[in-house]
Amino acid sequence: MVSRVYIGIGSNLGDRMANIDKAVDLLEEQMEVSAVSSIYETEPVGKIKQDMFLNCVVEASTDIPPIELFDLLKLMEKKLGRKNGIKWGPRVIDLDILIYGNESIKEKNLTVPHREMHLRRFVLVPLREIAPDFIHPVLKKNIPEMLKDIPESMVKKIEVPACL
User: Fold this and answer.
1) What residues does 36 pair with on adjacent strands?
2) Which of 16, 55, 129, 159 could be bridged to 10 by S-S, CB 3.0 to 4.6 A?
């Protein structure tokens, strides 16, 4: 069965824009990408001093089961040069399953919907761009409702064409 998925992409090491472009290319090889948000420059999360991130969100259709998709994304990260490091530390690329259809998954390494997406402006702002009518399948809140519940942080749209 084919499901609509939303994947968050972030990078704050190396050529951040090229890293995101390469990640989108790899996703397009594995699934049907239907939308890619604009790129946003965002503040890093956590207490580690590091460079700003570039982030976007991809909408795609896939029949790859969620756990296999998670494993595939980890392989893509490795292929793009990601090394294991400190939680919320700097990274060449980060690929996260935000939403997988209407599924609610709680596994050791995978929680869908992403457990912190509703707390992250750098996820919600680009998601709103490509899925303005999105309703969180567990919280039953729309994006404006989730955004008003979280503190302000810098999420600045970069004036370049979208990843596609």
Assistant:
1) 58
2) 55
Is domain 3-157 given the CATH code 3.40.50.2300 in the classification? no
Active site residue 115: no
Domain ranges of the chain: 3-157
Closest residue by Cα to residue 62 from 21, 25, 37, 34: 34
51 a catalytic residue: no
From 16, 91, 120, 128, the catalytic residue: 91
Task: Give the confidence band of 164 by pLDDT, cuts at 50, 70, 90.
Answer: very low
Provide the mean pLDDT of the chain: 91
Nearest CA among 118, 95, 18, 27 for reference residue 64: 27
